[in-house]
Design brief:
This protein has 345 residues and is of the alpha+beta class. The chain has nine helices and 16 strands. It has three domains: 144 residues, Roll (Nuclear Transport Factor 2, Chain: A); 53 residues, no CATH class; 106 residues, no CATH class. The strands form four sheets. The protein has a six-stranded mixed sheet. It has a five-stranded antiparallel sheet with strand order 1-2-5-6-7, with helices on one face. Strand 12 and strand 13 form a beta hairpin. Helix 4 packs antiparallel against helix 5 and helix 5 packs antiparallel against helix 6.
Length: 345
Amino acid sequence: MRRAIALCVSFAAVAAGALSLNAATCSTQSQMSATLRTAFTGEAHTVAAIVQSGDIQGLRAKILPAISGDFDGIAASVTSLKPQLQGAKITVDSLYLLDASKDAPGAERTQFFCGSPIVILTFNGLPPGTYALAILHATGVQHPQQISLIFASAPGNQWQIAGFYAKPMIEADHDGLWYWTSARKSAQMKDNWTAWLYYHIAVGLLSPVDFLSSPNLQKLQQETEQVHPKDFPADKTQVSLNAQGTAFNLSAIDTTTQFGGLDLDVHYIPNATQAAQLRTPTEARKQVTDVMTALLAQHPGLRQAFHGMWVHADQGDSSLFALELPMEQINPGMPQASNNQPAVR
């Protein structure tokens, strides 16, 4: 989905669930010595301060040489993240010491089982060594963030950055727990489209990194799959929507906060006749609003769940026409007029 800032992934992660194939061990922060816990906390705060200040050269000095080829991507991500962290309060939410020093070189999968309840960290192709994972929260700002740092032990008792990830903690003024609770309510009302979309937002907000699994996150994933709508468009699978007697091929549906509120983001692929109609502004607007109206008629719960709807008529990698309207302006048979001008592209 839509919301995570793309940052460097130093290790390819795979889903947790299989038994560990290696002798890797994990220590949580409560199991660490006070000295080690203080050292990791200090390193995490140092990196957070570098990001807050936008000190790219200071960041470069802390990067593990093995991922230096990815530094430009890391630097660009830090630059985009910096404004959101100005004035933020940084706290270390979780620390894990990961010892894979006895692993055989070239191990396909390494898993760490941490604490109780067990948190599982799963890596693919992790080189033998000692690592640490620090999960930080940046709060007290308009867009709170969670930042996950992987440190690798380096010569001279140093710790260098081997992985850097950031994700938002809030979406449209609500946190992941709110979306999880709201998704459950929608599921109870058999409003599976809203539940599915809300569950996915909850997963994005509550999972700090893709390679971490916990009992709560597993439960969230299970609940998400239980409401998966059969008539929801997916990769390479289009869904037909009947609007005013005309079939439209929906290719993708997601969510977006591009206009501040939480909007439904709908894409469809027009046929030749529909594409020709999109060349005339009045016909294009009618076609797109027909799609909006038909979708809300089929799934009325979406009207209350979202601020508005973006609809894009796509051709290849480009958009022939796109329109955003607040939900209150999407009414069957009513003119689309408002003091607020809708966004048209």
